[in-house]
Amino acid sequence: MNRIEPILNDINNPTMDQDDQMRMIREALSDTVTPIPEEGKFCTFKYFAKTPNIEYDQHPLVAVTELYPWGFRGINFHWGQYRQYTFQELGTQVYIVQQDELDDLLSLQYQKRVLNK
Fold first, then answer.
1. What is the pLDDT of residues 15-43, one digit of tens each?
2. Whole-structure pTM value
3. Domains in the chain, please, with CATH?
4. DSSP string for 33-84
5. What is the dihedral of CA 100, 83, 60, 28, to 10 degrees?
6. What is the pLDDT of residues 87-111, one digit of tens each?
């Protein structure tokens, strides 16, 4: 069952900012939470980069391609490029996204670009 579809209209409300959108998404996906994602899975989470002076996506939507002892690597769909995520910088648990929910999340503008200072 697609958990995002029932909340799409609420998330697309023009008064919603990215933090509110992400909060709603996390609530909808709260039954598939994990500290470590699996390779080949889709996920979203809140992230706080440690590298100074870089722009990053604080609300990434990722296809996990590789796991490491320090974190994981995957394609960030918001940016269309591979990115690395360290477990230490995760701001939330990892929320697993089902295949049938991916298009709905891709249709949303919940990414949050942040310049790490």
1. 899 999 999 999 999 999 999 999 999 99
2. 0.94
3. 5-115 (2.30.30)
4. EESSPPTT-EEE--B---STT-EEESS-EEEEEEE-SSEEEEEETTTTEEEE
5. 40
6. 999 999 999 999 999 999 999 999 9
